[in-house]
Amino acid sequence: MIRIGFLINPIAGMGGRVGLKGTDGVVEKAIELGARPLAQRKAFAALRQLHQLLHKTANPPAFRWVTCSGVMGADSLRAAGFTEFDIAYEPAAETSDNDTKSAVSRFIERGVDLVLFCGGDGTARDVCGITGRDTPILGIPSGVKMYSGVFGTNPARTAEILFEYLQGALASAEVEVLDLDEEKYRQGEWAVRLYHAALTPYEPTFTQSAKMMISEMSDTEAKMDISKHLFEEFGAQPDVLLFLGAGSTVQAIGDAFHIDKTVLGVDAVAEGRLVGKDLNERQILDLIDRFPDRKLILSPIGAQGFVLGRGNLQLSPEVVRKIGRKNIIIVATPAKLSHTPVMRFDTGDSELDMELLGSGYVPVVTGYGLSRIVKAAI
Predict the structure, then answer these.
(1) Which of 27, 1, 29, 33 is nearest to 13 (CA)?
(2) Average model confidence (pLDDT) for the chain?
(3) Right CATH number for 2-201 from 3.90.180.10, 3.40.50.2020, 3.40.50.2300, 3.40.50.10330?
(4) Residue environment code for 199-216, b if the CB has 16+ CB neighbours within 10 A, otherwise e
(5) What is the largest distance, in Å, between two alpha-carbon atoms of the chain?
(6) What global pTM score does this model have?
(7) What pLDDT digit, counting tens, does each position of 323-338 carry?
């Protein structure tokens, strides 16, 4: 019988909405700022989808859960309808990366065939550091930053990957496990490092790629053209509140507006001046209440294609709904789009994701007066 090790990093993603760009070492600060746990909700969504898929199948595959007690696993399994599982690890009252590593070690001792975890890149590092290349791993995305190739594109898709794996329909592939230096990230420096290679059940439609850095000489000119186009369109509209998301393409737009744009945060421009820098969810909502006309400019993560849900959790479902789908402007250079054929949305709200998906295609500004219709997916 197949044995699946399952664990949750309970604090994964908590720093996102409050603008901390991660949770490593800043859990108490995140809580002070009003952060709420997200990982159990994401885990439940994946487990519930898996439970439904199994019950719709005439001959469901036989497998056994091996998990942790309480918030690190058992609670979510019960909530999703799974009643039979083995407890291999009892975590401390306040969990840490040591609990993740210890739990995975216990899973390996129990002979699990795959480790399913809920967290971000830091959790993936901890899990892979124990499993190595010997045991496949699969991640339910719940972190602030998820650049590694072991994650499904969202919780429901992760469940579908696991379901196909249990049926023997998927082979494992070797992918990269990356992680960002959060301290440098909070200071505006993007420093990603390759830590491991891991095996994961690979389904190209539902498994995200590792983040790709796009660096071509033509990109600089394309960014300038995009910036000029958007500055001419919105620079003459002083009543518009313009939110600028993360990334070098959007930073170039900030340069066109002559503001000190943060590379990795969400900033706001109104009446030709910077009215908010490196904003968290609450600060964004406060600004929205002051300006009836607002726009949000975003650029996808190279190769992965995520417009929302990776690195910008402060753009919560409430924020996105108040801004409105028609007021979201996606920008990308032609070079980035050549490696990023699909735009993806993972806001944590499936109904909102479907609204953003629309007909399955979204416009992307690629230059001065130029745009391209690009396939979208969740």
Answers:
(1) 27
(2) 87
(3) 3.40.50.10330
(4) bbbbbeebbbbbbeebee
(5) 65
(6) 0.71
(7) 999 999 999 999 888 8
